[in-house]
Amino acid sequence: MIKIVKRDQPSRAIFFLTPVLAIFLTLVAGGLIFYILGFKPFEALKFFFIVPIADKYGFSELLLKATPLCLIAIGLSFCFKSNNWNIGAEGQLTFGAIVSGGVALLFYEQEGFYILPIVILAGAIGGMLYASIPAILKTYFNTNEILVSLMLVYVSKLILDYLVVGPWSNPEGFNFPETRQFSDSARLPLLFEGLRIHAGIFLALAAVVISWFVFYKTYLGFQMKVSGFSLKTAKYAGYKGKKMIVLVFLISGACAGLAGVGEITGPIGQLHREVSPDYGFTAIIVAFLGRLHPVGIIFASLVVAITYLGAETAQIFMQIPKYTGQVFQGMILFFLLASDYLLFFKFKFTGSKK
Amino acid sequence: MNTNLKISNVTKKYPGCVANDNVSLEFNSGKIYALLGENGAGKSTLVKILSGVIIPDEGKIYLNENNLKLNSPLDAKKNDIGMVFQHFNLFETLSVFENLIIDSDEQREVLTEKINTIMRKYNFSIDLNIPVLNLSAGQKQKVEIIRCLIRNPKVLIMDEPTSVLTEQETSELFLSLKKFSEEGILIIYITHKLKEVMELCDEVAVMRRGKLVSVSEIKNENIESLANKMVGQNLKTIKKKKEKTSSDQLINITNLNFISEDPFETNLSDINFSVNRGECLGIAGISGNGQSELFQVLSGEIISDKNSIEFNKNYIGDLNPQERREYLMAFSPEDRLEQAAIPQMAIFENVALNNFKSSNFFNNGLINENKIKEHSKKIISDFNVNTNNIELKSQFLSGGNLQKLIIGRELITSPDLLICFNPTWGLDVGAINYIHETLIKINEQNKSIILISTDTDELLKLSDKISVIHKGKLSKIMDAEEVTSEKLGILMGGGN
């Protein structure tokens, strides 16, 4: 007979093992789904997870997709660690892209080393501005940041839509919903000839290092940790709660904004309707799969990035919709939350008596 | 028909305390019984046993000579025992009617008829179709009562029912209860409010520290005699050595008010007091009378008017706890596990919660871990915390050791004033003594204490002056030498 017993304390080993377990269960469930759809499960999983990254180009694509996921998830972990639920990174990414895109368009057909830093900075500021809205509404008007940040996602997407169709659309672009191409000086350089991986990856790596330092070495990190465990204790210790809420939202917004910069100034080089395939939402999964730990987030972003690539290969080779990728992302989160049960409870196998 | 409820030799033990120690009681219908006692006296445990929430270790319960097996609240319901808890068990978003019928399997029409009859009979006027969240506390309580009455209970137990009611609602409730009693329902009324007992009840059973102290008729009692029984007459008042206290004023509170938006919190009105150097001001009261709010206002978790708190000749009413610490105040909250410390964090991390500029725990925004650890080791040895591993998560410390750590953390910076709230709550005797000795030592060093406590013994032992908080108001401040526990008991119950 199997009994479920409460653990005396959450298990540290299980804390890092459950993400692995979640991924394993996702593979099993995914295989099962493929089987039901009439595919050979192992072959399908191979198309989904192995084939896309089997060559140099595929690996570059993997890093390309993992970059924004990692960057945004790092930013989000600042919020999540301190009990602030920023669900609107997608909107902050979009707005960051709009602002940096706007600045890049100002420098249309101009060259100069100073342009790219300004464009990058503009993206970060755009993301921060957009993230400050839910933060300020939360601190001064007690609104729910989940709702506000989420709804602002759709606002930013409509603003982008308006701009690329209307005032910012390319005059020579035959009414395609996109802007003019940015000048070379406004673009993040590509790292290798023929591959799309760009310098944005360094921004992500920098964010990883900085966040590790902040989380574990600074007073801000300590305050975030305390607030994450107990807001009552944070209040008792006298931490300036409002300031911290605004600050973590700004950091999170800046990271999402930078991810937006990478998306438009990298391989694409212009603003268009679909800046991001929901990186901002998927990064929430990445943040939790990585246990809000900078190193964990690197691995999680790589794993989740595969689902984007796998979905595309599966569409090409197996004629199944690319939305399968989202099914896999959903399953990862689902199994992660489910296996978190093991953090607090354990199975105990007893004799067969009733 | 007569109802007879008998509790026979009921004992319930918890690790470290006996909540009910061989309690035997007998109740007969037609009378209203009061079950009186301080917090922790064991009355809630007894009531929970009667309503099937807790199963006693020993003892039996008889209803009309039948031995009842109460293994769950459902068993109590089946045996015609109805219970109205202090906090309501209602579904806020469902309508009154839906709430009333939710745990009944009778037919809708029958129930409607029953409910209407009850409402007419006892003059209840509640709109059955509106959601419960729109009701006042008094109306919600009526819904709970109707829900019990639907089942034609023989026994109705009311657990501190007036704590959320207005005066008006209270007298309405008393009228209804008297009517139920006339109808033959046996009523057991749990309270610590002496005035209500005198007004409503026919017989009173007093509990103290898990034991039944007395059963008597109300006509033979008065507020003083009941207070005596409740608090315990033969309390030895061990007090600290009284030095001549200084007249050097350290903190002065004037016209401090706090109005809460939360209906479960207590408003503070017109708080005025001052504490001199080297003095301990005790604030007594039954829990839930505004102590928690008072603590938060004093610690700065709730910010008030700048001029309402004068500390060491500075006005600090608008400062947060960290800023107040810089003025040499220290705080020890009631809730050790959820507020004063974080169980999941290491001991040294918990030490860093009390952060001064001069402690250098954080330099230029960076954690100075060596400094914190050094400091933590000092606290552990100075305050006898029984461990030498400062990396240990504080959840592995016993209550007493955790409290020593917290008090030590607050005191190691030698503050001028320590504000503590139930510092010995839930601790064993050894730890209590240690904390008491520590507090007495602080006073001897000419530092001051504000001690908010629900433990009267503790207050009489440690305080120089005592005031009682009742419904968010402070009584006049009395010299601890002249105060008796009976007098405190009366003031705590709202008497004069």
Précis, in short:
The complex is a heterodimer of chains A (354) and B (496). Chain A is mainly alpha-helical.
What does this structure look like?
- The complex is a heterodimer of chains A (354) and B (496).
- With 354 residues, chain A is an all-alpha fold.
- Chain A has a single domain (2-349), classed as ABC transporter involved in vitamin B12 uptake, BtuC (Orthogonal Bundle).
- In chain A, 69% of the residues lie in helices and 3% in strands.
- Chain A is built from 14 helices and 2 strands; from the N terminus they run βααααααααααααααβ.
- Chain A has helices at residues 12-36, 41-49, 56-81, 89-106, 115-141, 145-165, 200-217, 219-229, 231-237, 241-268, 279-289, 294-318, 324-339, 341-344, and strands at residues 2-6, 345-349.
- In chain A, 47% of the residues are buried.
- Chain B folds into 2 domains: 4-231, P-loop containing nucleotide triphosphate hydrolases (Rossmann fold), CATH 3.40.50.300; 249-492, Rossmann fold (3-Layer(aba) Sandwich), CATH 3.40.50.
- Helix content of chain B is 33%, strand content 25%.
- Chain B has helices at 43-50, 73-78, 96-101, 108-121, 137-149, 167-182, 194-200, 223-231, 291-299, 321-326, 336-340, 347-351, 369-382, 399-411, 429-444, 456-462, 485-492; strands spanning 4-14, 17-28, 32-37, 58-63, 66-68, 81-84, 155-159, 186-191, 203-208, 211-217, 249-258, 268-276, 280-284, 309-311, 314-315, 329-332, 362-363, 366-367, 417-421, 448-452, 465-470, 473-474, 478-479.
- In chain B, strands 13, 16, 19, 20, 21, 22 and 23 form a 7-stranded mixed sheet that branches. Chain B has a 6-stranded mixed sheet with strand order 6-7-8-3-9-10, sandwiched between helices. Chain B has a 4-stranded antiparallel sheet with strand order 2-1-4-5, with helices on one face.
- In chain B, a hairpin with a 2-residue loop joins strand 14 (309-311) and strand 15.
- In chain B, helix 8 crosses helix 17 (485-492), helix 13 (369-382) packs across helix 14 (399-411) and helix 14 packs parallel to helix 15.
- Chains A and B meet through helix 8 and helix 9 of A and helix 10, helix 11 and strand 18 of B.
